[in-house]
Amino acid sequence: MTAYDDLMQFQRETEALGQVAGRLGWDQETMMPEGATPQRAEEHGAMANVLHARRIDPRVGDWLAAAEALDDVSAANLRHIQRNFERTTKVPAKLAAELAKTTSLAHRTWAQCRADENVTGFLPVLQKVVDLRKEEAAAVAGNADPYDALLDDYEAGATGASIGAMFDALRPRLVALRAAILDSDAPQELSGNFDEAAQLALSEKLALAFGYTLNNGRIDKAVHPFSSGSGMDVRITTRTNPTDPFNCFYSTIHEVGHAAYEQGIDGQHLLTPLGAGVSMGVHESQSRIYENQLGRSRAFTGWLYGQMRESFGDFGIPDEDSFFATVNRVNNGFIRTEADEVQYNLHVLLRFDLERALISGDLAVNDLEAAWNDRFAADFGYEVDKPSNGVLQDVHWSEGLFGYFPTYTLGNVYAGCLNVALRKAVPNLDDDLARGDTSAATHWLRANLQQFGGLRSPIDTITHATGEIPSEVPLLDYLEQKFRGIYDL
Q1: Most exposed residue of 47, 118, 411, 421, measured as fewest CB within 10 angstroms of its CB?
Q2: What Pfam family is a match, any one (predicted)?
Q3: Helix, coil or strand: residue 417
Q4: Set 29, 136, 155, 255: catalytic member
């Protein structure tokens, strides 16, 4: 056994325990009884303690010093373990456990306060989460920007400054396109009631159509849809709304994009640092290209129109072209996860700026709701009507996920780049999509991106798949071409 072999054997056990910890989170969101919250918080804290101890085990440092990389895979594994070891050793074990316990409790507090429209009840626990994450960020960052230290957790190599510059380039064209659309006549809206059981049945059909493997997964309901796990156990959730089946269908397709990435990673990387998506931005590129460039395309929505008529009968949309426009209708609305492609990134930009201000200390937690409402009114032109449509709508801050939000727009940018490369590689793709056959697209994504897992850095992952350095231009060009066509601009 070499030092590398010893290190990887130890790492496999750490990765396996991390999967167990993730399963605790999945259970909390889907099946855990309400009364178990305090105990689950203790369990999360205990698992965090165990994982933290393993990640800072002195033997890891010794193995890293002695290990030699023999190929690209071993070099990438060592790079990931080294980065994680250096980062984790800077965070005290007590702080890591307190964060896990606090965010577990904060999540349940958020869910109840969201249901009760009670911002005041949520702010004290949010303050504690912010304080703990700021403490963690300071420990990791040293003299660097604390927000960058948090962002690096989700998108290695990214900085607040680089993302801010990209977002500044996105904003003018997005705002101009939004204004032109909202000055035009809107397509027909979907109306009526849609049976929940029929929604879930079609939702599962969509998951399978996009390549999700139920033998290694399952579909459940949750307040906030998510994907969990990797390798041989990758689970997703969705949600239903009796008047909005698109919420169910496109939440499912979105989460299948995440799950397909995890299910598509080469089996040799199972329970190693390469056995999961390399970053949240790259992960989001998969969910967004599945959901939008594929799932909301004219070709695929033509097939979905027929499926909906089989499931629900005549639901008031006369033909496939009208249905395509309805699916992509740009609506005023408050909820990020329900936003159309044009406005979605404006929701993310709002959150990015607010959370950077929270971490820097430029914005107090007690002023967060007012800051959110002011920014929303400025960006969208109307007032937030209730907290669940405003500052309480997202789960992320209750779970301490500061630095996560910008990866959603990064994912859209990456998806725009991937879509250009995919269309060049599969010029007849729309013919397949019109039959509900996504296999040419999903196989291309698996072969060019998904199978490699964490082998390359996030930027290099996209560059390798597309042949181009990522840029926001393809996304903006795609949005303008699509929506100027729909709205006859």
Answers
A1: 118
A2: Peptidase_M32
A3: helix
A4: 255
